[in-house]
């Protein structure tokens, strides 16, 4: 009986030794890979780290051809992590792609077989390294303007890390450049519920993509959602106004801003946007005036001037009304903050524009026979120019290097026939270009 027990113990010992020998390579691969991860954190031990990585590869390759260990979840997980890391150790695609492919195949098997999650850390390491590989590949392709390949790489990067906002963003960027607009919108859409730092620009980009596809309905939808989320973003507000004008929904924008003002009457930005909306209306009417003048306003005679003015006058009145409403809004913004640059700039413009129109009307449409009316109209224009002057000067004071502020001021000097100051201001504008 004692001999039998001894024999059984001896057999169990032999079985344990054989099992250990069979798993030795897997164990060694794990230990040397762990050493690599530790040593690779410090520059002075990079060389030693690389030796351990190569040793890990040698062991996992042996484990991969051993029928007892080849199909273990741990073997696949280690192989994925080791080969993904090796793929990141070179920049030549001919060398790295086979390594990446091996890692990809091993990772799929590891995920399939590791239902219990025993190799979660290794699978995570492999996934991170493979994602980094695809990110690097995508950046290189994007920089080389190979946007199709960039999109493919970034999209794979996102597949590996589906909650990574950078992956979503880069995939969207590459999709735009590759003219894959539906894919771009799909990726940007994923970013909207996140805390991604560039969400404000994402709404604007989505609107731009929709406009590229001539889809003004979606463009307005995206930018309006952006305004609701980021009401102080001037680019989103401006785009909403522009699209609303194009689609005949401008009054809806006015209504939204007026409602916002009612809820927050001390918000200078809201008054500014209200003014900007009315300015846009005025400029749109100004475009209609320009078209009328181009079509019918040249070479007018005494007989053709009256019918032309019948068409011009209501348009001019409409434009002046919009500019007056704009000035009223800018004025309220400036009552809250007198040093509000954008409000000063646009207040000056809203007052300057009708002054220029009045000046041009006198010189272009009042014949010599109406000298008294001509003189009175020019006097009126001068008063209007002078009303704009304080805001024009303030805008330049607040931002001396603003080309817009300087151009408005130059137009004031031209309108008041102050050639010396107009020329001096032009020199300031020219200096900006240099």
How would a textbook summarize the main sheet? none
| Rg from alpha-carbon coordinates | 36 Å
Query: How many strand elements?
Result: 0
Cα(first) to Cα(last) distance is 105 Å
Structural class: mainly alpha
Mean pLDDT over the full residue set = 90
What proportion strand?
under 5%
Q: Number of helical segments?
A: 18
Helix content: over 70%
Q: Outline the low-pLDDT stretches.
A: 6-20
Order of helices and strands: HHHHHHHHHHHHHHHHHH
Described by the principal axes of the CA atoms, the overall outline is elongated
How are the SSEs ordered, and which strands pair?
Blueprint: H1 2-39, H2 46-65, H3 73-87, H4 93-113, H5 120-143, H6 147-160, H7 165-177, H8 181-191, H9 199-212, H10 216-229, H11 234-247, H12 250-263, H13 268-296, H14 305-336, H15 341-365, H16 371-398, H17 403-415, H18 419-433
Word description of this protein:
82% of the residues lie in helices and 0% in strands. It is mainly alpha-helical and 434 residues long. The protein has a domain at 13-144. Helix 13 packs parallel to helix 15. The longest helix is centred in the N-terminal third of the chain and has 38 residues, at 2-39. The radius of gyration is 36 Å and the shape is elongated. The model is unreliable at 6-20 (pLDDT under 50).
Give the gist of this structure.
The chain is 82% helix and 0% strand. The chain is built from 18 helices and no strands.
């Amino acid at each position: 009986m004692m001999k039998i027990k001894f024999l059984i113990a001896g057999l169990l010992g032999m079985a344990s030794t054989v099992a250990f020998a069979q798993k030795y390579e897997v164990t060694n691969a794990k230990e040397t890979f762990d050493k690599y991860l530790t040593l690779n954190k410090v520059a002075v031990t990079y060389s030693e780290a690389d030796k351990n990585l190569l040793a890990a590869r040698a062991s996992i390759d042996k484990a991969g051809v051993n029928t007892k260990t080849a199909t273990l979840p741990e073997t696949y997980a280690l192989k994925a992590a080791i080969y993904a890391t090796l793929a990141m150790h070179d920049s030549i695609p001919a060398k790295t792609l086979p390594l990446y492919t091996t890692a990809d195949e091993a990772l799929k098997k590891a995920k399939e077989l590791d239902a219990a999650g025993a190799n979660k850390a290794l699978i995570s390491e492999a996934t991170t390294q493979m994602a980094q590989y695809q990110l690097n590949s995508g950046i290189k392709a994007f920089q080389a303007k190979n946007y199709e390949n960039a999109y493919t790489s970034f999209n794979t990067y996102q597949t590996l890390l589906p909650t990574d906002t950078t992956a979503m963003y880069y995939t969207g960027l590459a999709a735009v450049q590759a003219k894959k607009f539906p894919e771009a919108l799909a990726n940007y859409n994923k970013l909207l519920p996140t805390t991604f730092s560039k969400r404000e620009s994402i709404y604007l980009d989505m609107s731009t993509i929709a406009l590229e596809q001539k889809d003004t309905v979606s463009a307005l939808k995206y930018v309006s959602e952006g305004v609701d989320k980021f009401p102080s973003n001037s680019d989103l507000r401006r785009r909403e106004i522009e699209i609303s004008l194009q689609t005949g929904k401008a009054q809806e924008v006015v209504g939204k801003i007026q409602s916002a003002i009612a809820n927050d009457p001390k918000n200078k930005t809201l008054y500014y946007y209200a003014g900007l909306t009315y300015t846009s209306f005025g400029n749109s009417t100004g475009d209609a005036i320009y078209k009328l003048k181009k079509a019918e306003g040249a070479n007018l005679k005494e007989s053709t001037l009256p019918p032309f003015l019948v068409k011009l006058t209501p348009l001019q009145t409409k434009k002046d009304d919009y500019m007056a409403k704009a000035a009223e809004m800018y004025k309220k913004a400036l009552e809250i903050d007198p040093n509000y640059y954008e409000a000063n700039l646009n207040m000056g413009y809203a007052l300057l524009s009708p002054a220029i129109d009045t000046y041009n009307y006198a010189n272009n449409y009042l014949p010599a026979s109406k000298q008294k009316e001509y003189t009175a109209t020019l006097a009126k224009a001068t008063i209007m120019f002078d009303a704009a002057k304080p805001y024009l000067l303030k805008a330049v004071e607040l931002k001396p290097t603003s080309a817009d502020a300087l151009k408005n001021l130059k137009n004031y000097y031209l309108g008041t026939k102050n050639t010396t100051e107009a020329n001096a201001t032009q020199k300031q504008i020219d200096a900006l270009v240099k």
